[in-house]
Task: structure prediction
Amino acid sequence: MANNYTHHPICPRIGLDANLAAASAVPNEILWTTDTSFLYVEQDGDKKKVGPTTLADLGVTATAGEINILDGVTATAGDINIACVDSTAGIKAWVIYNHATASPSVIASKNVSSVTDNSTGNFTVNFDGSLSTSDYCWFASSRDVNDTGTANPCAPKLSDSKTKNAFQLQVESTADGTNVDSPETCVMVFL
Amino acid sequence: MKIIYQNDSGGVSVIIPAPTCRLSLEQISEKCVPAGKEYRIIEDHALPKDRVFRDAWEYDEKEGITISFSKAQELTREKLRRERIPLLQQQDCLFLMALEKGEDPKEIIAEKQRLRDITAQVDLCSTLEELKQIKLSKG
Result:
């Protein structure tokens, strides 16, 4: 079955061969790679170049990665939209942080080297590397420690605490505005 | 393993490395500890057993992290003051209702006084565990 693709500057469409999907060593997982010139779709060791146009012509850059199709969805022939082929845009870093236990922990993260626990409900997210600018946007949500379903507001700590390398935030109680710890604070950084 | 240092507020900052981070603890220290700050690398179990008095933690060159009892006392007072606000408001309502009905508000007055005096219990404590035991509820 021929791959079906179109050239779109933001979301190139990559055709998926149904036979390849069935032969995948990891069900419902498709890998893509790039040699900076062409985008490839790879599954079960079978690599296929996508399109005659170079990524540069498309105006995007990409790095190696993977697409995980959600549970309960079977990969079939058709088109897959890659929303963020341009790896330099979108979410730059994220972290899930538990600061409610005696020994706080980073549950999962990307492009985050560490989290600095400064005091109750006050911590600093340290990036793995430096961002290109300090004019980035971040968003965080924090689960209430008693699992009441209430989300604790997350606010910037100080304006000068936001740099290319890190930023500081505080998690506040909806009840009285004091800083509180949470078993799960999720932070995303956009640029 | 954690990295600790004294922050500008006089408390302790604890750096928690991300599991996927490829940097060594020394490299993270170099990157994340403010320039000129002394730091220590400690085992997880060297952290205090709970975060009840997190804002009373202090950096100690020898012991790593200690808990300031005077700070813990003040934190307990502040907590009790915050938590008694709605209880006092509730007693104010009950007091007015008792007056309207012509009932004796003696018990309500006593409860209000108990709530006002509860912070005095902090001064009677000599250990952190005693501070934790102070409750707003009766009995």
